Amino acid sequence: MKVVVVYNMKSGGNKSLNDLKKACDAAEIDVEKYIAVSAKLRANLKPYIKKNAVIVGIGGDGTLSAVAGMLAGTEAIFAPIAGGTLNHFTKDLGVDQDLESALGNVAKKRLHVIDTAVCNGRVFINNSSIGVYPSSLQVRERFEGYIGKWLAAIMAGFHAFFSLRTYRVKINNEMINTPFVFIGNGVYDISTPGIAQRTDIKHGTLSVFVAKTVSRWKLLKIALLAVIGRAAMLDEFDVFTTKSLTISSRRARLSVSTDGELGHEPTPLKYEIQPKSLRVYY
Questions:
Q1: Which of 75, 117, 205, 208 has the fewest CB atoms in 10 Å of its CB?
Q2: Are 111 and 161 in contact (CB under 8 A)?
Q3: How far apart are the C-alpha atoms of 169 and 173, rounded to whole Å?
Q4: pLDDT in tens, 124-144
Q5: How many domains does the chain contain in total?
Q6: Is 34 within the bounds of a domain?
Q7: What letters, b where the CB count within 10 A reaches 16 and e where it falls short, cover 245-281?
């Protein structure tokens, strides 16, 4: 099988280009081109997307999301491989987390057509959130170079908790004022302890979790019950499935987390599901 390999040397599970070449050779993969993630990624990938090539993406969720955004709506085929820290996307698809095993199985995988989602036209493959989490990311990024990642994360969490802003969400003809919104691509189950688990990425729907309170202590209660999979029992927490939603604010731009990457988008934010928009080997 002839493929194009996109790799990110800065991802959490990074390997050198020489290591990647050795792994591809060992897996008997015919690599037409190795392309490093850079500002020129779209331009560098464009001729291969036009040829409907198989694009192997190696990196964390942010890298895979960026590549998926370029392939969505085309006939090119995406073969995602874990190369980051959390690797939610590849885990949800059941892709081997070991690089060598995943490369060796690329040619054996079946072709699936899955959903993607967009925020103001920007594609994401896992989830997006507004409020507490992106606010804490912004503060963490500002300070982690001085005091370290984990101490900065703790400081950021306290800052976000005590400086809440509210947003207006229009979903399924209902209007909700909230300090926190989670939008997932696909069907998510929140009844299991820990983080929400995605159970379907081909259903043509967004899963939306909304806090229906601005009380800090009730938000803390939601967070604590979410850890044990019991947040849905609270009246102050609601779960929706929808094809689209709109988030508005008095601010011209909002901090938005998409697939773990912090960005800033003009308001209103318009989210939509893109059913069967990405061709994937897994």
A1: 75
A2: no
A3: 10
A4: 999 999 986 655 555 455 656
A5: 2
A6: yes
A7: bebeeeeeebbbbbbbbbeebebebebbbbeebbbbb
